[in-house]
TrEMBL record:
Keywords: Methyltransferase, Transferase. The keyword Transferase applies. The lineage of its organism: Bacteria, Pseudomonadati, Pseudomonadota, Betaproteobacteria, Burkholderiales. This is Biotin synthase.
Length: 300
């Protein structure tokens, strides 16, 4: 694999957003992608005893993972900047004697991502996380170290086609980059191999989301993150610019529509061995099911 071009990405912008992003609930899109990704868990027969939820406060997956693996230890892992934000979050509203509190399972204390390497989990779940990594190969290596041998990672992230309409609009208007470029799924597959994973399988789908008006569209985009391109416009935009953006996002007829490319991947951590490189395979979901049935049959 030839080394990809250096990624234009400002990690300080991500850290700033992690400190400010809401903690009450994960974005709707994250929760929907988590639901779709969970359908792929049926392809893996092994039942994990320890599950890592990477950047759990943003993944929107805690309840889903608890219901799927009720006997497993669920460990939320957070970035250092996110831990600082969570420490400042107010306590949940409501009286201490509320029956709803009694029924709610106690949430585990989040672990800083650097300490996750000691967990030896059988499943590392990373929903809508990898596109925020300034160094994706380094994050994949963290995941590999946090897994037990024969454990598996299952993840999702945004792909390069995400908000292509907004990127085109910015380019035509001369407003600079609308955001950092996202990594292609084939490159991610190669990165998995070089991180030490076995049998990486990549899949993707495009979602076209629509809003009644541009204001609602922009409000939801703000819940998903911020512009992390180092060449983004410096300083604050003006109210006049915002009106121009809203007008440009409003079609003559119909709703405001944006495309989101969702990349899914999973891979196993095999026994340590010398590696001479490898290639990733891109397959359909139907073919992926067939491959997993064959693998599970061999392990039975």
């Amino acid at each position: 694999m030839s080394d990809p071009a250096p990624r234009l990405f400002d990690p300080r912008a991500t850290e700033a957003w992690l400190r400010r992003a809401p903690v009450e609930a994960a974005p709707w899109l994250h929760q929907e992608v988590a639901r779709r990704m969970a359908e792929r868990l049926a392809l893996v027969r092994r039942t994990p005893t320890t599950v890592i939820d990477w950047w759990a406060s943003l993944s929107g997956s805690a309840e889903l993972l608890r219901s799927t693996y009720p006997q497993a230890r669920l460990v939320p892992v957070e970035a250092p900047a996110r831990l600082a934000r969570l420490a400042q979050a107010p306590a949940p509203a409501g009286p201490w004697w509320s029956p709803a509190r009694w029924r709610r399972p106690a949430a585990a204390q989040p672990v800083e991502e650097g300490a996750a390497v000691t967990l030896g989990a059988e499943l590392l779940w990373a929903n809508m996380v990898l596109h925020w990594a300034a160094d994706p190969p380094a994050m994949l290596q963290q995941w590999h170290r946090a897994l037990a041998v024969d454990g598996f990672v299952m993840f999702s992230c945004l792909g390069p086609d995400t908000v292509r309409e907004l990127r085109t609009l910015y380019s035509r208007a001369g407003w600079g980059p609308a955001g950092a470029e996202f990594v292609d799924m084939h490159d991610i597959g190669d990165m998995l191999v070089h991180a030490g994973f076995d049998d990486p399988v990549m899949d993707m789908e495009r979602l076209r989301l629509s809003w009644d008006d541009a204001c609602r569209c922009l409000a939801e985009l703000r819940t998903l993150g911020r512009n992390t391109h180092p060449r983004r416009a410096a300083g604050l935009r003006t109210a006049r610019w915002l009106r121009a953006l809203e007008a440009a996002l409003t079609p003559a007829e119909g709703p405001t529509v944006l495309t989101f490319e969702i990349v899914y991947g999973h891979a196993f951590k095999g026994l340590p061995r010398a590696r001479a490189g490898g290639e990733t395979t891109s397959v359909s979901l139907q073919d992926m099911r067939s491959m997993m049935r064959a693998r599970n049959a061999r392990r039975s």
